[in-house]
Design brief:
- The protein is 29% helix and 17% strand.
- The protein is built from seven helices and twelve strands.
- The structure holds adenosine-5'-triphosphate.
- Adenosine-5'-triphosphate binds next to helix 5 and strand 8.
Amino acid sequence: MVPWCGAVSELRPLCGARVWIPDHAEVWRVAEVTRGYREGDTVLHVRLEDGSVLTHPMEPRPPPLCNPDCLSGANDLVALSHLHEPAVLHSLRRRFLEANSIYTYCGIVLIAINPYEALPIYGDEVIRAYSGRQLGDMDPHIFAVAEEALGQMVRFGRSQSLVISGESGAGKTASAKYAMRFFTTAGGCHGDASMEEKVLASSPLMEAFGNAKTTRNDNSSRFGKYLEIGFIQEKSREPPSKPTCWRSPGSPSRWVPGVEWEPHPLEWEALRLGLPA
Ligand SMILES: Nc1ncnc2c1ncn2[C@@H]1O[C@H](COP(=O)(O)OP(=O)(O)OP(=O)(O)O)[C@@H](O)[C@H]1O
């Protein structure tokens, strides 16, 4: 992210402008410029919200400008006048704390914040509300992205991909499950609860063999995942779906060498039932 472009002399933060100052405890803090930048100034004079005054060096780059309050918190980061790290963090924080919203768009990319609690935003009525709607018609949601993919597939008869990425514990697996729930419900399996069960039932088995408890996630996938769902004409899904899983080519395995194998309760269950590994 590039908070400022161009030479320092072109930027000239005005007196009264609000800028972001890096902070050890809060990462970024808002400050007001108390003396406009003049050619040759090496520091910017600012006042923090708690009243303390300080100077901030203009090199290697001046502090990033704050967005107007009416823009930060917009449901699409593209709407921000200044797009840089503190603006993104502030917007996501405001949406999460003030609007209770874990989802934000950045163009066609959906950003999700893990709420670490069950939210009432994944029910059938929400799936129905997002079904058939255009991306951008409604609040950002994983269902909107899933609907976009489903709609494109139906309209153009072409396979679609959802790429879900993030650090460990970010909620990739949960997001994939919500997307699959949307596909099974909105993709032509209305009223067939067993279809959703069948699609999601593969997860515990895969998790039994490939998941482990880590410091970041109690049920962390220790492998890359590739899930493929086949559909037949008229938006019906081809039973059974074909979830497959392997280490992504080129990406290192998450298995830690030297760590002793610990059987997972579900693995014992699979072995007891005589299921193939
Ligand atoms: N949208 C959500 N709503 C509620 N809980 C969530 C959501 N997303 C994630 N979680 C919770 O956060 C925890 C970690 O999520 P998840 O396992 O999906 O992370 P991950 O990105 O797949 O992690 P890893 O890369 O380690 O496998 C889970 O317990 C999950 O229930």
